[in-house]
Specification:
globular, alpha/beta, TIM Barrel, 243 residues
Length: 243
């Protein structure tokens, strides 16, 4: 079994005053202030992974990568996340870009990621750029990946983060570039079918593109999350086996 872990859950812990003292005497972290890349905390994560008998399929960080004014901090944050991914045994670091803020100006983003794929190769952790949000098409993500032209950068393909009016077409365009996948789900009918996303189409498109990586489940619906995850996994396996 494999799990995907997000650094958004690296919450500061312990006595607030002690944390403030430690922060004062420590170098400033490039990570967002609500994420504590602390050695002791990350050690507890590694121990929990081992105790659970699972492997880490991906480590996630939420980068901006849209404003050249913050590129230096973004790069430092990504390098920190890459090192952490390697320490956790994760082969993938899922990253994001603020598509609306970036607009059509992908050149600076490509230049930055061309540098960072070298760090990714040194750490042995591939960068997976997620199709994030539902208002932009697939082309900016495809152009960024093509611009870097490195096996150390690919797409984290989310089943649900697509424009409603062209979701199937957009998914098919992104599938050949996928190195990781998010199977988002919200609700199921009595037959075990997801009611908002055409899962058979998604699995067919991945298979047609030759995808053989991990499919990570992201249940975001109401009710019991464990039940939602089990329903999603069963649906994926049923669709995959039918092909």
């Amino acid at each position: 079994m494999a799990v995907e872990l997000q650094d958004i859950f690296l919450w500061p812990y312990g006595n607030r005053y002690i944390r403030e003292v430690l922060r004062y005497f420590s170098p400033p972290s490039p990570a967002p202030p609500d994420r504590l890349y602390d050695y002791g905390l990350l050690l507890r994560v590694r121990q929990a992974v081992r105790a659970g008998g699972v492997r880490v399929a991906a480590w996630d960080c939420d980068t901006n990568l849209a404003d050249p004014a913050t590129f230096s901090r973004d790069a430092a944050y990504l390098r920190l996340a890459l090192r952490t991914g390697r320490q956790l045994g994760a082969p993938i670091l899922r990253i994001t870009v603020e598509h609306e803020q970036m607009g059509d100006a992908i050149g600076p983003v490509v230049d930055l990621l061309r540098q960072l794929v070298q760090d990714a190769e040194r750490e042995g952790v591939r960068l997976a750029l997620e199709n994030h949000g539902r208002t932009t098409g697939p082309q900016p993500v495809i152009d960024i990946v093509a611009g870097c032209a490195s096996p150390w950068l690919g797409v984290c393909l989310d089943f649900g983060n697509l424009r409603p009016e062209s979701a199937d077409r957009d998914f098919e365009a992104l599938a050949p570039h996928a190195i990781f996948a998010h199977a988002k789900s919200y609700a199921f009918d009595g037959a075990g079918e997801e009611t908002t996303i055409p899962y058979m189409h998604r699995i067919v498109a991945l298979r047609a593109a030759g995808y053989d990586g991990v499919i990570s489940v992201e249940y975001e619906g109401d009710g019991n999350a464990e039940d939602g995850i089990r329903h999603t996994r069963a649906l994926i396996e049923r669709c995959w086996a039918s092909l």
